[in-house]
């Protein structure tokens, strides 16, 4: 037996109201994190962000060129697209991880450092590719994917303050559920301050 729609809306409103009224983290949980752990977490966030956006960019470019040109030249274009995607996704992942850890670094500086890392990686890749066999060039292509992540972490860390900024209760978003039930059905909304 399926519960009526109004019962489902009321249950959802109850769950949201419980989640919206959750207490903030205790002071012990907001203590500064050790630098090695913080940098490791930001690096992991950068790798995940770079892999998501870089992988998606490479896949879309490869699939598009395979259908349009019969597959010629799609590998090189997909490699360039993947590396450019990593240089965009890595600072996004690093910045989001840093914000979750209470850091106040700059996304723009992280992104610029990531692009600089991409430039260094492609410079090394181009030099090796021009001067040696393709197997050595394939090995150095990994620098085009790893140096943007390293650049993003370095830029974010250099632009963040030593002390995490205190988060006041007024700065946190506040959400409250709103439920309306009438003869024609029900409605659910979230009302909040952002």
Describe what is shown at a glance.
By secondary structure, this protein is mainly alpha-helical. It has helices at 5-20, 35-69, 74-100, 107-131, 134-159, and strands spanning 174-182, 185-193.
| Overall form | flat
> Which strand order spans the largest sheet, edge to edge or round the barrel?
1-2
- What would you report as the Rg, rounded to the nearest angstrom? 23 Å
* Count of β-strands: 2
Mind describing the biggest β-sheet?
Answer: 2 strands, antiparallel
Terminal CA distance: 39 Å
Mean pLDDT: 76
Unreliable stretches, pLDDT < 50, 5 or more residues?
A: 18-23
Percent of residues in helices: 55-70%
Strand content: 5-15%
Report the structural category. Answer: mainly alpha
Write down the secondary-structure element order.
HHHHHEE
Number of helices: 5
Plain-language structure description:
With 194 residues, this protein is mainly α. It has a domain at 33-162. Helix content is 66%, strand content 9%. The chain contains 5 helices and 2 strands; from the N terminus they run αααααββ. It has helices at 5-20, 35-69, 74-100, 107-131, 134-159; strands at 174-182, 185-193. The chain has a two-stranded antiparallel ribbon. Helix 2 runs antiparallel to helix 3 and helix 4 runs antiparallel to helix 5 (134-159). The longest helix has 35 residues, at 35-69. It is flat, with a radius of gyration of 23 Å. It starts with a helix and ends with a strand. Residues 18-23 have low confidence and may be disordered.
